[in-house]
Write a structure and sequence with these properties.
Structural class: alpha+beta
Strand content: 25-35%
Order of helices and strands: EHHEEHEEEHHEHHEE
Radius of gyration: 22 Å
Helix content: 25-40%
Number of strands: 9
Largest sheet: 4 strands, mixed
Strand order of the largest sheet: 6-8-9-7
């Protein structure tokens, strides 16, 4: 859950009386459209009502599956010429999945989620190139796209295509491989973090 509100009542004998108490004192909270789930417990005349909004509205699979879904979406985008900011790009060859880059990408997503930051430079000062090298990637060049807060691959891709720098990475014909993954942590500001590592 990303947002939770609890209401405690003492005194109502039954559900009808509890509802009247809620309507009288907590109407604004109960009608807040951000809350989509509710739980109610009762012990004698003590009531507890918990309203919550889930961290993620979409149901995501394991990071490898979502990473490969993101790869497919990126390859679909690469198949068409496009403008990234003011720069035109021709259609590019599809990228192949890289297990090494995928592992590196998921680890960076997990680090951002668990340590509540959003940056290409990790907390130890490491860069995307450093992480790829340490992870065992032997390609000549790497690039990295990151995203935070989006709960689906389609939202991640849309954000990257709208950003000239991210779009340029995505369309770069020198990249031949990709690994991608996400991680979530409800204690973090954005909740979910994505990393795509491009290699060539």
């Amino acid at each position: 859950m990303v947002n939770v509100q609890a209401i405690t009542l003492s005194g109502p004998r039954d559900a009808k009386a509890a509802l009247q108490a809620v309507q009288g004192s907590y109407c604004k909270v109960v009608l807040d459209p951000q809350f989509v789930d509710i739980g109610v417990t009762q012990a004698g005349r003590d009531w507890r009502i918990v309203l919550a909004r889930p961290l993620l509205s979409a149901r995501l699979g394991p990071w490898q599956n979502e990473g490969q879904a993101l790869l497919a979406a990126i390859n679909s985008a690469r198949a068409q010429p496009r403008q990234c900011g003011g720069q035109p790009y021709a259609a590019a060859q599809p990228l192949a999945w890289s297990e090494v880059l995928g592992t590196v990408a998921e680890a960076h997503s997990r680090d951002m989620a668990n340590n509540n930051y959003f940056d290409h430079q990790d907390k130890s000062g490491g860069t995307p190139g450093d992480r790829a090298e340490i992870g065992g990637y032997t390609g000549q060049r790497v690039g990295e796209n990151i995203a935070a807060g989006q709960d689906s691959t389609s939202k991640v891709l849309a954000g990257w295509l709208a950003s000239p720098g991210h779009c340029a990475n995505l369309m770069n014909p020198q990249y031949r491989e990709l690994g991608a993954g996400y991680a979530s942590d409800p204690k973090s500001d954005a909740g979910i973090y994505w990393t795509a590592m491009f290699g060539g």
